[in-house]
């Protein structure tokens, strides 16, 4: 891969190579201290981020590379003066060996590749995709279950605007015998293009209407917040799907609860101490899988 724009680019072989490398980096981080010693990586974030930006920036530093960064690039870079993404990439690539882009437009990272001679990594684009989140989600599932094929997963929340869901589903579609249950409130259903994508890959997708429709033996519950920043007040509405301890008590002791974070009220704090609630371990895995990804591009 020259660039990483979509989970459609993954293969199971590539994912498993990254999982093995991420495991090594987790166990022996010091072994990679100088792995990218002479490299420079740029992070261009036109939308807010805590996990993706800081885990990428930590990964850069832990691999011994140098970092150049613009947080809030929408206002604090020359984008505010009208510079388009093509010109920004043409300029920034002169200063670095890879560019990590988060943008409010779905196709900005793809546009960046049209002029880029260094790798472009999509760190989340609008309501489209977030492939490196899918990497850490798949790595987390694999770490806890020792397999991905054969899992049953329920995706919950804002299935329409949630780019983490879109990229995760495309990643899961690489594996066999996956069954997906989708639950959202009205208006935030999974767009048809993803349902068709799953169907074309032989994945069963059940659009369900209640938490009661999820089998008690589900392997993974993957919840997401409502992306209110992409809606007007009326659309944002109310009626969140809430997971609390009473809900978790319905599921098996092997049912993992994941969330890309940040969360709002959709997972109540009483669940945090449940050993099945693995969202903070999930976000920590973002560091190791992003180290593995950068190493595979630049090492
Ligand atoms: N999960 C995720 O993308 O979080 P941030 O928006 O904080 O990067």
UniProtKB/TrEMBL annotation:
<dbReference type="InterPro" id="IPR006131">
    <property type="entry name" value="Asp_carbamoyltransf_Asp/Orn-bd"/>
</dbReference>
<dbReference type="Pfam" id="PF02729">
    <property type="entry name" value="OTCace_N"/>
</dbReference>
<comment type="similarity">
    <text>Belongs to the aspartate/ornithine carbamoyltransferase superfamily. ATCase family.</text>
</comment>
<dbReference type="InterPro" id="IPR006130">
    <property type="entry name" value="Asp/Orn_carbamoylTrfase"/>
</dbReference>
<dbReference type="InterPro" id="IPR006132">
    <property type="entry name" value="Asp/Orn_carbamoyltranf_P-bd"/>
</dbReference>
<comment type="function">
    <text>Catalyzes the condensation of carbamoyl phosphate and aspartate to form carbamoyl aspartate and inorganic phosphate, the committed step in the de novo pyrimidine nucleotide biosynthesis pathway.</text>
</comment>
<feature type="domain" description="Aspartate/ornithine carbamoyltransferase Asp/Orn-binding">
    <location>
        <begin position="150"/>
        <end position="296"/>
    </location>
</feature>
<dbReference type="Pfam" id="PF00185">
    <property type="entry name" value="OTCace"/>
</dbReference>
<keyword id="KW-0808">Transferase</keyword>
<keyword id="KW-0665">Pyrimidine biosynthesis</keyword>
<dbReference type="InterPro" id="IPR002082">
    <property type="entry name" value="Asp_carbamoyltransf"/>
</dbReference>
<protein>
    <recommendedName>
        <fullName>Aspartate carbamoyltransferase</fullName>
        <ecNumber>2.1.3.2</ecNumber>
    </recommendedName>
</protein>
<dbReference type="GO" id="GO:0004070">
    <property type="term" value="F:aspartate carbamoyltransferase activity"/>
</dbReference>
<feature type="domain" description="Aspartate/ornithine carbamoyltransferase carbamoyl-P binding">
    <location>
        <begin position="2"/>
        <end position="142"/>
    </location>
</feature>
<dbReference type="InterPro" id="IPR036901">
    <property type="entry name" value="Asp/Orn_carbamoylTrfase_sf"/>
</dbReference>
<comment type="pathway">
    <text>Pyrimidine metabolism; UMP biosynthesis via de novo pathway; (S)-dihydroorotate from bicarbonate: step 2/3.</text>
</comment>
